[in-house]
TrEMBL record:
Keyword Transcription regulation attached: no
Protein name, per record: D-2-hydroxyacid dehydrogenase
Membrane spanning residue stretches: none
Record's keyword terms, sorted: NAD, Oxidoreductase
Pfam families: 2-Hacid_dh_C
Coiled coil regions in record: none
Length: 325
């Protein structure tokens, strides 16, 4: 039996995804931008949110007859968890799996940069200054990874392979985890930081994780510890982090995500010598956009065939069903 081709609205900010013709081969494609979305959604079967930073979907969502399936070209879906979509029968999927290893490599890279003081070397080179220093080893250092989903697990394996001792923090405590050994409750994070060298944030943004790292948590960190955030900017109370860095109660921070993006030019974080800033790119390696399209295409073919979709998000929890965080 031949099924009619699904109608797919592709939301982008002016630059469509690569190989759009491959999507068009199995679907009726409508390219739309934020202002065109309200007219495109009624009667659309599938919404492919290529512009994952857009906040237009909530504003454009129809009162009735929304898409049956929404797919995000990102791992995080907090921007899509507005009440009308959460309460609807619409299936929400994400791009879990594309970013795991690249983000794990980014975290290892920032750990090495801190340990070997590479960021200082670059700044000294810019000023043509020769200044000998001693550096640190990473073997034997400890890391606590907040977020025990696929990205957190990839980070744990990468850091363990480099000789570090890794534990985790997630929704529930447990022992004997294959990647973390011990997993603590995220709610009890402050109680497990006194021996941690690197606090790594890789959790999704949910009601429970918003503002997780605040002055209370930072006060329990060792003054030699560093914070690495590849999760979401809102996991950290930025003003509390700035204060801890200024008062030397934290040795440094590597930040790939921020509560306001782009990071405003007047943010004190730009001027702090022990802060590494990257523009939300920890998972964006060469070929990543092609991988995102391949994942969507595989799901689209399953959708057209009536098969089960992969990476289905639990809309109440905010992440893919069956994965721990």
């Amino acid at each position: 039996m031949t099924h009619p081709a699904p109608t797919v609205a592709v939301l982008h900010a002016g630059t469509p995804p690569p190989s759009l013709d491959r999507i068009a081969a199995v679907a009726d494609v409508r390219e739309v931008t934020d202002d065109q979305l309200p007219d495109a959604l009624p009667g659309t079967d599938v919404l492919f949110v290529w512009d994952f930073r857009s906040d237009a979907v909530a504003r454009a969502w129809p009162a009735t007859g929304g898409p049956r399936w929404v797919h995000a070209a990102s791992a995080g879906v907090n921007h899509l968890l507005f009440p009308a979509l959460v309460d609807s029968d619409t299936v929400l999927t994400n791009s879990r799996g594309v970013f795991d290893q690249p983000m794990a490599e980014y975290v290892l890279g920032t750990v090495l940069s801190f340990a070997k003081d590479l960021h200082t070397s670059v700044r000294l080179q810019d000023r043509k200054q020769w200044r000998h220093r001693e550096t640190e080893r990473i073997a034997g250092k400890s890391a606590l990874v907040v977020g025990t989903g696929p990205i957190g697990r990839a980070i744990a394996r990468q850091l363990t392979a480099a000789g570090m001792t890794v534990t985790g923090a997630g929704r529930r405590a447990r022992t004997g985890d294959p990647d973390f050994g011990d997993v603590h409750r995220s709610d009890d994070l402050a109680d497990h930081l006194d021996q941690i060298d690197y606090l790594v944030l890789a959790a999704p943004l949910t009601e429970q994780t918003t503002g997780l790292v605040d002055s209370t948590v930072l006060a329990r960190c060792r003054p030699t510890a560093r914070l690495i955030n590849v999760g979401r900017g809102e996991l950290v109370v930025t003003d509390d982090l700035i204060t801890a860095l200024r008062e030397h109660r934290l040795a440094g921070a590597a930040l790939d995500v921020f509560d306001t993006e782009p990071l405003p030019p007047d943010s004190p974080l730009w001027e702090m010598p022990d802060v590494l800033i990257s523009p939300h790119m920890s998972g964006d390696t060469v070929g990543w956009t092609d991988e995102l399209v391949e994942l969507f295409l595989a799901n689209l073919r399953d959708y057209a065939d009536g098969a089960k979709l992969r990476n289905v998000v639990d809309k109440q929890r905010g992440y893919v069903s069956g994965s721990e965080h």
